[in-house]
Automatic annotation (TrEMBL):
Gene3D superfamilies: 2.40.128.180. The gene is FAIM. It comes from Vicugna pacos. GO terms for biological process: apoptotic process; negative regulation of extrinsic apoptotic signaling pathway via death domain receptors. This is Fas apoptotic inhibitory molecule 1. Belongs to the FAIM1 family.
Length: 201
């Protein structure tokens, strides 16, 4: 992953919306799960030409040619909420480089660990279609397949319910105290009166 001469390797069989010939300097690929979906970030670094190109979901966000300084950082936005992302380029030794991604000022690993504490994610299959539902616990915002949903909150005997619709399906997220301080509040997605298991990202 260090030199600019590496050939691009794509894990999935889908070919990207840009030509592979242009991707000869591809050095890093990250998948970042945000509330509005999972975003693919790709980074090209031409160590001989000084080129830096950042793609988000196949769309070119940054292109710089003939940069004489081969180390540094590139900052850009990802997703509907315009989340700040930074790629750090550091020299490891000689002509070897290390590429790290930060999201909102945190390493990707730390960001994802924190996100698992602040969000719940469910994936469901309805009417032949897949839906990814995300609850942001701090704001109680609900996202479905990249769109922020209109919700209605309701107090019930044992907690709260946040109601919304996916197509013709009635959905709600039930928030109930676990009774244990460390566990806090338990959020459960109910679709058409059946519980959907949570996806652990």
């Amino acid at each position: 992953m260090a030199s600019g001469d590496d050939s691009p390797i794509f894990e999935d069989d889908e070919s990207p919306p840009y030509s592979l010939e242009k991707m000869t300097d591809l050095v890093a690929v990250w998948d970042v799960a945000l509330s509005d979906g999972v975003h693919k970030i790709e980074f090209e670094h031409g160590t001989t030409s000084g080129k830096r190109v950042v793609y988000v979901d196949g769309k070119e966000e940054i292109r710089k040619e003939w940069m004489f300084k081969l180390v540094g950082k590139e900052t850009f936005c990802v997703g509907a909420a315009k989340t700040k992302a930074t790629i750090n380029i550091d020299a490891v030794s000689g002509f070897a480089y290390e590429y790290t991604l930060e999201i909102n000022g945190k390493s990707l690993k730390k960001y994802m660990e924190n996100r698992s504490k602040t969000t719940n994610t469910w994936v469901l299959h309805l009417d032949g279609e897949d839906f990814r539902v995300v609850l942001e616990k701090d704001t109680m915002d609900v996202w479905c397949n990249g769109k922020k949903m209109e919700t209605a909150g309701e107090f019930v005997d044992d907690g709260t319910e946040t109601h919304f619709s996916v197509g013709n399906h009635d959905c709600y997220i039930k928030a109930v105290s676990s009774g244990k301080r460390k566990e806090g509040i338990i959020h459960t997605l109910i679709v058409d009166n059946r519980e959907i298991p949570e996806l652990l990202e």
